[in-house]
Amino acid sequence: MEARIVKILDEGMRFVLNKGKNDGMTVGKEFMIVEPTDEEIIDPETGKSLGKLEIPKGKIKVIYVKDKHSIAESIEYEETYYLLPVKQRRKVPITSAKVGDLAVEQ
Known about the structure:
It contains no helices and 8 strands. The chain is mostly beta strands. The protein has one domain (2-105): FlgT, C-terminal domain (Thrombin, subunit H, Beta Barrel), CATH 2.40.10.410. The radius of gyration is 16 Å and the shape is flat.
């Protein structure tokens, strides 16, 4: 399944997607946000097209679904060591995402 980001909430922590229950969207689905480009990728050995380049930006997970749209949140994490050897993880926003980017199911 593919969806598009139609609105960005909480400075990149949550995203409104243009797919909902009517499209088969369910809570828990995971997506990679990608920026589509027009750049064609060509295999140098065969000369054949491998498709268009997509720039990955971060992972999201659907947390809320309505009939025609859904809301997903960032599941990107940053790991830090404040008091060695204790590792802490915290969710981070996907600040490079923008309206119109694709969300491709993982």
